[in-house]
Amino acid sequence: MLRVSVALDAPSAILVSLCQRPLTNLLRPFRNMTSDGWIEQLEVEIDPLCDDQTADPNSEIKSLVNLTTEMSVRAGRDFHISRSMKAMIEAAGFVDVQEQRLKLPLGHWSTDPKYREVGKFFERFYKTGLQGWLMQICTRYLGVSRGFAFLAWPAS
């Protein structure tokens, strides 16, 4: 586990936050912030959502998300942290906390040019990071072998 012993600025805090257990240790007003200081924090919701309810409930993505409940318990991490992040930031002492929820399409299927471009980027981000994320969680906490993880979730 990474131990942080210096006052962090906001970019460092975001990069380090996933290494902290519990995350609330990191989310306290930073010693080097002034009273008009602010942070920006981003979390991606891992549950797939669909505006028109056409998503397949038996899709590979939905199956993977269903597995995150067990992963979360075994790893001692909250993989649905986006749901509680605002409250955690407020509990840490920050005031005037604002939350924006944005659509983040996975893939280039959208008819909206903006969402199509965002979707292409996020699909690449998702696919390139998925194997490493799953490899660490599944081999360390679920007892899955590296070989099986490579076959189950090949790198894209």
Could you outline the blueprint of secondary structure elements for this entry?
Layout: H1 10-16, H2 60-75, H3 85-91, H4 113-141, H5 146-152
Characterization of this structure:
This protein is an all-alpha fold and 156 residues long. It folds into 2 domains: 1-45 and 80-100, no CATH class; 48-76 and 103-156, no CATH class. The protein is 42% helix and 0% strand. The chain has 5 helices and no strands. It has helices spanning 10-16, 60-75, 85-91, 113-141, 146-152. The longest helix has 29 residues, at 113-141. It is globular.
Which key features would you list for this structure?
156 residues; mainly alpha; single chain; 2 domains; disordered N terminus
Brief overview:
The protein has helices at residues 10-16, 60-75, 85-91, 113-141, 146-152. The protein has 156 residues and is an all-alpha fold.
* Structural class computed from helices and strand pairing: mainly alpha
Please trace the helix and strand order, writing H or E for each element.
HHHHH
How is the main sheet built?
A: none
Q: Looking at the structure, what is the overall shape?
A: globular
- Gyration radius over CA: 18 Å
- Helix % is 40-55%
The fraction of residues in strands falls at: under 5%
Note the gap between the termini: 28 Å
Query: Which residues form runs of ≥5 with pLDDT under 50?
Result: 1-20
Q: What is the typical, i.e. mean, pLDDT?
A: 75
Number of helices: 5
The count of β-strands is 0
Tally of distinct domains: 2
